[in-house]
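Consider the following assembly input.
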Amino acid sequence: AIWMTQSPSLLSASTGDRVTISCRMSQGISSYLAWYQQKPGKAPELLIYAASTLQSGVPSRFSGSGSGTDFTLTISCLQSEDFATYYCQQYYSFPWTFGQGTKVEIK
Amino acid sequence: QVQLQESGPGLVKPSGTLSLTCAVSGGSISSSNWWSWVRQPPGKGLEWIGEIYHSGSTNYNPSLKSRVTISVDKSKNQFSLKLSSVTAADTAVYYCAREPLAGIAAAGYMDVWGKGTTVTVSS
């Protein structure tokens, strides 16, 4: 299985900040990476797929980049509704696997 | 738009079988999508369990493959999960989700999710 390391595990930030979350893969996956946002007690929501393609309806302050083994999710101007946990997921090879999550909390 | 709703017992005894159903509304289960199950133990991350196409083709996570069966019922527009020989480690929120099609295979990412259902394994 392909494993990923998300960093940081916890990120303290303020509204208006630019935040970056990293996802590093145990092997190259081309651009077969998705990012999800999950709020407490809710299901995950797809933000980005194919490493950098924004899912319909997702605000443009979210962006993704990277290919191969290193990927980044960037929130350009953090809003109050963005405080949540973020997961990366690879779909290059079975089984699909998720990162351990990055919790973005209010500083 | 497509909506998914999980249902099933919230409590299962150890060594028993966990059975869940995901009802698809607002669209057909025979559309060009794969259908997945994902679980999340309390306070932990996400684990992909497996997926099914309306033809009955399946893919499973090897870590669970010996205990998992995913099936589809086109007449009821739903798909199901069975997990046998459960232990406390199977206690989790179980989600069903939709995977778009990429060519003839699952795209791999999940664009529509159910709200999730909590299953506790306890005597």
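Residues 21 and 80 of chain B are 4 Å apart (CA to CA). Ask yourself how this observation constrains the way the partners meet.
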